[in-house]
């Protein structure tokens, strides 16, 4: 998580760093991504970077966490528009993400570009960010449970995690 120093920066300075990091992580695998390139593109000193984030992984997790939260909102919207039909909502989500598969920071497509560039991290990192209780709370009133054959309510979180892992490498 970013430090309070980062969170207290003006929004444009925060965005400049996050955009530079998104570009770097979407063009190079995590282990090859360079903090030097990120700070150069963001126009900040190295010392400032370490005042904002503990390390490259901290920054990466923060960026991906924001995209996961954004993706959950999009999933909810897709499911609601499909009248609660989870499977139709996931098909709509797939179409939505395919149309936005670019690398513009802040767009859901940027997340797919980062994941595509870091395919080995997908299951461990992305799915690790999906808290089952958060998924259930976010979609509980959106999904028409009668359309699913759930043995237990928590099976919905399992279905969503599986769908998200399949949709992520678009």
Please describe the structure with a list of short key phrases separated by commas or semicolons.
single chain; about 170 residues; 10 helices
Describe this structure in words.
The chain is mostly helical and 170 residues long. It is built from 10 helices and no strands. It has helices spanning 4-7, 11-27, 35-42, 46-52, 56-81, 86-99, 108-117, 122-129, 132-139, 155-167. Helix 2 (11-27) packs antiparallel against helix 3 and helix 2 runs parallel beside helix 7 (108-117). The longest helix is centred in the middle third of the chain and has 26 residues, at 56-81. The chain is elongated and about 55 Å long. 27% of the residues are buried. The model has no long low-confidence stretch (mean pLDDT 80).
Secondary structure elements and pairings:
Blueprint: H1 4-7, H2 11-27, H3 35-42, H4 46-52, H5 56-81, H6 86-99, H7 108-117, H8 122-129, H9 132-139, H10 155-167
Helix pairs in contact: 2-3, 2-7, 5-6, 9-10
């Amino acid at each position: 998580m970013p430090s309070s120093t980062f969170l207290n920066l003006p929004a444009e300075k925060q965005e400049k760093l996050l955009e530079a990091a998104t570009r770097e992580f979407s063009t190079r695998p995590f282990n090859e991504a360079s903090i030097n390139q990120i700070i150069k593109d963001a126009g900040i000193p190295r010392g400032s970077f370490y005042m904002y984030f503990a390390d490259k992984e901290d920054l990466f997790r923060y960026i991906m966490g924001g995209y996961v939260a954004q993706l959950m909102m999009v999933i909810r919207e897709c499911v609601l528009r499909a009248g609660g039909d989870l499977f139709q909502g996931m098909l709509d989500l797939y179409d939505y993400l395919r149309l936005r598969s670019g690398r513009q920071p802040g767009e859901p497509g940027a997340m797919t570009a980062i994941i595509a560039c870091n395919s080995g991290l997908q299951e461990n990192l992305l799915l690790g960010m999906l808290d089952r209780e958060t998924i259930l709370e976010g979609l509980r009133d959106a999904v028409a449970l009668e359309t699913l054959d759930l043995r237990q309510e928590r099976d919905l979180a399992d279905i969503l995690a599986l769908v998200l892992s399949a949709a992520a490498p678009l």
